[in-house]
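Severity: low
Component: inverse-folding endpoint
Summary: output formatting inconsistent between runs
Steps to reproduce: submit the following structure tokens with default settings.
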């Protein structure tokens, strides 16, 4: 199962161009490894970026040296600015570097499936193999997980390390001894070094620990409190070690924070209050608080609107989750309701953490850009569902039904290959119609420039009119293109990223960045219908010679 997952992920990552966020993430990891300067981590902790960049140290890419950042602020630590510098320096080997870096994410994804397999098996003493295989299959063969298993981003890493942290804490609850407390604290700290969504581990783990202690009184309360302090203290040491202890103990009042929450904290505490965390992680967290508050335009069910909607992620789960997975989720919930009674501490941990992540991103953030934001919740829920269904599968037809749903999931994964980012279920007509319901990383994240190049070669197209959603220069992939003016397309071929039909963005035009102020509107009465769909993320039109300008 793991090998098939890896084959699907590696096969996909080789065919897809560098996506929007990858463009910034890999340069962060490379810059941190080569300079030991964590100020490059402008928006995220460094662990996944650094892991992805490790292969680059052994590849000796051709470096063109200094580069100019196109139309970007000249900031040394700018995430996007350094993305352009990295692209210009290593243009000759650009895609090859990302292919190698993406393989590290595949390895982390395989690790995630192994943890899920072990955890689900432990939750189902009667049928551990069935529970483990089902949980691992639901994670490894979900198109949404496969979509990110081969990308240089923090999403799969967050899912893996957050699940690992929760699992080690689950093991601690089963046998609360010092060794397991230290291991849980280590995993908890490592999760914080991947993505800030891991911060929700602290309150949920505390609630699960209190629940378990009240129900069982496994150890005296005094030792329980000491174990808790140990777990938190170890996690803080791990966080600081991840930043090589740079900037630890700085005065809170001296930090240039921007968010309302941290500025309030500065005003409430004395100026010289030492912060037991590296300054770089505090400032990156501060930037994320800013982004979450301000948000940006979102798109759902054909409508563009500012900020977020509380139902955004629930709606995406309904249309981007394969139907067999929806059936398994519903069956697990029905079994749990029929069984009734108080949940175990492990069950509370799994559902509590998954539910907290869903609620937090739905209600506390206006940054609704894709289902990937709640990806860490998925493995936790599937561990719970697989364990619940395996324990309840007392009759043969139950197990046959579970096997059939699992096989259906695998077929969905094969059928969607390699266009996993654009996957939508048949409730909305499948992947080819997904762009009518969602945008951005849900369908089009700039991943199909390679497909555009192949289409041009197959149809003998020398130069194409291109409206592309992404940061990467199309010329990196050998594409001759022109960005058409707002007056419209001229006769000939035109390729349009579907995200631009829903959201405004920045267009890259031979070293110049052009900001669009509104979504693109294609007049198909002039252009005609699309003549091709590349990866379900780019529409190709053939504007007839008899047509006048086709404004957008």
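Observed output (run 2 of 3):
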């Amino acid at each position: 199962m793991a090998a098939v997952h890896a084959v699907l992920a590696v096969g996909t990552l080789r065919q897809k161009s560098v996506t929007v966020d990858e463009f910034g993430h890999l340069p962060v990891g490379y810059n941190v490894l080569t300079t030991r300067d964590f100020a490059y981590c402008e928006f995220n902790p460094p662990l996944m970026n650094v892991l992805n960049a490790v292969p680059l140290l052994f590849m000796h890419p051709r470096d063109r040296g200094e580069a100019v950042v196109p139309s970007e602020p000249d900031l040394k630590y700018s995430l996007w600015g350094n993305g352009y510098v990295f692209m210009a320096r290593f243009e000759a080997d650009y895609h090859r570097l990302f292919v190698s870096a993406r393989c590290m994410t595949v390895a982390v994804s395989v690790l995630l499936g192994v943890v899920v397999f072990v955890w689900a098996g432990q939750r189902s003493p009667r049928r551990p193999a069935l529970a483990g295989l089902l949980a691992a299959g639901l994670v490894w063969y979900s198109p949404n997980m496969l979509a990110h298993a081969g990308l240089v981003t923090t999403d799969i890493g967050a899912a893996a390390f957050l699940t690992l942290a929760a699992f080690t804490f689950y093991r601690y609850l089963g046998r609360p001894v010092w060794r397991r407390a230290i291991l849980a604290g280590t995993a908890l700290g490592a999760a914080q070094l991947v993505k800030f969504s891991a911060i929700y581990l602290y309150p949920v783990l505390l609630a699960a620990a209190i629940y378990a202690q009240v129900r069982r009184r496994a150890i005296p309360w005094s030792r329980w409190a000491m174990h808790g302090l140990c777990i938190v203290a170890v996690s803080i040491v791990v966080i600081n070690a991840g930043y090589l202890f740079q900037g630890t103990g700085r005065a809170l009042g001296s930090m240039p924070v921007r968010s309302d929450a941290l500025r309030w904290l500065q005003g409430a505490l004395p100026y010289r209050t030492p912060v037991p965390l590296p300054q770089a992680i505090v400032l990156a967290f501060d930037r994320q608080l800013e982004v979450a508050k301000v948000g940006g335009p979102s798109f759902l069910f054909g409508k563009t609107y500012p900020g977020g909607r509380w139902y955004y992620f629930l709606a995406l789960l309904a249309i981007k989750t394969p139907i067999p997975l929806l059936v398994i989720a519903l069956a697990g919930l029905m079994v749990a309701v029929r069984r009734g009674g108080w949940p175990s501490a492990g069950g509370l941990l799994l559902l509590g953490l998954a539910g907290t992540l869903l609620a937090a991103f739905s209600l506390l953030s206006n940054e609704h850009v894709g289902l990937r934001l709640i990806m860490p919740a998925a493995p936790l829920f599937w561990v719970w569902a697989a364990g619940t269904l395996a324990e309840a599968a007392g009759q043969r037809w139950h197990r046959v039904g579970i096997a059939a749903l699992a096989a259906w999931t695998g077929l969905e994964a094969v059928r969607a290959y390699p266009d996993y980012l654009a996957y939508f279920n048949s409730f909305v007509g499948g992947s080819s119609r997904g762009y009518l319901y969602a945008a951005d990383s849900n369908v089009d994240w700039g991943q199909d420039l390679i497909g555009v190049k192949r289409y041009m070669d197959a149809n003998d197209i020398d130069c194409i009119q291109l409206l592309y959603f992404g940061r990467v220069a199309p010329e990196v992939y050998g594409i001759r293109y022109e960005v058409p003016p707002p007056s419209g397309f001229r006769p000939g071929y035109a390729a349009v990223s579907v995200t631009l039909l829903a959201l405004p963005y920045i267009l890259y035009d031979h070293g110049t960045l052009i900001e669009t102020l509104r979504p693109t509107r294609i007049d198909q009465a002039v252009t005609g219908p699309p003549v091709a769909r590349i990866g379900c993320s780019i529409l190709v039109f053939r504007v007839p010679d008899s047509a006048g300008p086709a404004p957008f």
